[in-house]
């Protein structure tokens, strides 16, 4: 079995982790000649760029910002000499795909830009010396890879991205890169499942190692007291008077896994562990058997200059704002985020709907507008589907593998707004859901976000999800401005049609919102002014509060974010409750007040 992605790099008695973040050499390769010219050995005429960061907003020219094609990164790194060691490189992500070379030799290739790339480089390095790593990355979009889109060639030959989704096609080495040294015999993976028994809890676990030495697993409380222990690769930890991980009131234990040879430590891995259960019961979402109403946001990894580059201060600020507004949940729209987001959500007691990058599954560069207009593009009836399915399954597998132990992750979203009205889409997504269900040890509820074209009478996929997630823009894309009263009637009409289906499932709004410029105020309100965003929200809340099967509201979006340019977007999508600089629009106070008592 290969080493799994769930083990975030950690330093301890047996493992050494060195960050390779910093300035790397970089070069665009528009003619894809790097491989034949041997760029994996050395990047001539390179420039310096920071890692982690998207490259787009570092530059001052259009060509670099919108560059689409191959591009290379390289750096040198020192490998400490150690006996009996496996040496790995771990990229938080390479967007959207990459080939890794060490000392000129190809080590691995990886498809998909939002999940880690782990390379065993033991056979490729010189220990006790400086070594060289080069990455050939590529950010082209197609209909057979996730997220979906196309590449457009301008008359002058320049290629640019044509996303079928509403966020800028940021790319590069956007997450941290680590050099990891682990013992030859080591812990490859682990998973846990908690269950409650009165005041006590049982945590069953499974550890994967590549050897036969004894495994012990211990659990420590916050004060460092060992509260449970078990040995063997499979076992159960019995926790008396367990402190549960509750929504917005997290308690985290430390789990310590050790491999020992007659008392001598071979390898250890420690992690935080929240004890909680997740269950859907009729129209309720239950965490630790208590109903929870989801309050929060759809987000993006997005910020000025760094693009989608990982940045701890931004994580901290976003959680402070979410807490301030009394939120308890967010969706990682529209791709799995950097792992640190989940670690912090575990700590802060936030719930996460973890989303795979299955976005843009409708052939349109104005998907967001076409989503409610009945457009149909035969997306799941084209020859690209088998490859798309393969990539989709792979990314579902890697996401669940990576995130399966996070208490915060209570659900997986396996799509955002695909076409769902054909039997082809049903066949496609049945395979995705069946597979996802078969690999999640915690059997979390599975979902996906449906657009308005997925109407109750037409949708062929709602039966696949454990709870419904709806993205709805009544009062924005549909009957906006002076027509808002029509919007509300239409909204009720749709909800009544869902109600009539008696699905007996929770419904969550995973998107609703209006583009709002932080500079605009007007009475009476007009679209794009802050007053309109507030009125729209209040109107939507009245609808939500009329149906008891509605169990959550995640506003679109947490903050303004960058998109492809166009007449629908004013330097990006402005549906943020906060500005891109993370300051509140008036709507933030409306939400804060509503969610205080919700
Ligand atoms: C949607 C999409 C989201 C867009 C949003 C919008 O339906 O899921 O990615 O950004 O609408 O603002 O139009």
In short:
With 598 residues, the chain is α/β, with parallel strands linked by helices.
Can you tell me the number of structural domains?
3
Main sheet characteristics: 8 strands, parallel, barrel
- The gyration radius over C-alpha positions equals 24 Å
Q: What overall form do the CA principal axes indicate?
A: globular
Walk me through what this model shows:
This protein is α/β, with parallel strands linked by helices and 598 residues long. It folds into 3 domains: 21-175, Sandwich (Jelly Rolls); 187-244 and 248-273, Immunoglobulins (Immunoglobulin-like); 292-489 and 506-534 and 552-595, TIM Barrel (Alpha-Beta Barrel). Helix content is 18%, strand content 32%. It contains 9 helices and 30 strands. The protein has helices at 62-65, 312-324, 339-348, 367-370, 385-403, 423-439, 484-500, 530-544, 586-596, and strands at 16-19, 22-29, 47-51, 70-79, 85-91, 97-102, 105-111, 117-120, 129-138, 149-153, 159-163, 177-183, 187-197, 200-209, 214-220, 226-231, 234-239, 253-261, 264-273, 278-281, 284-287, 290-291, 294-298, 329-331, 351-355, 409-416, 446-450, 468-471, 507-511, 550-556. The strands form 7 sheets. The chain has an 8-stranded parallel β-barrel. Strands 3-2-4-9-6-7 form a 6-stranded antiparallel β-sheet, with no helix packed on it. Helix 2 (312-324) runs parallel beside helix 3 (339-348). The radius of gyration is 24 Å and the shape is globular. It binds (2S,3S,4S,5R)-3,4,5-trihydroxy-6-oxo-oxane-2-carboxylic acid. The site of (2S,3S,4S,5R)-3,4,5-trihydroxy-6-oxo-oxane-2-carboxylic acid (GCB) has 13 residues, from loops. (2S,3S,4S,5R)-3,4,5-trihydroxy-6-oxo-oxane-2-carboxylic acid binds at residues 165-166, 334, 368, 371, 416-417, 451, 471, 511, 556, 573, 575.
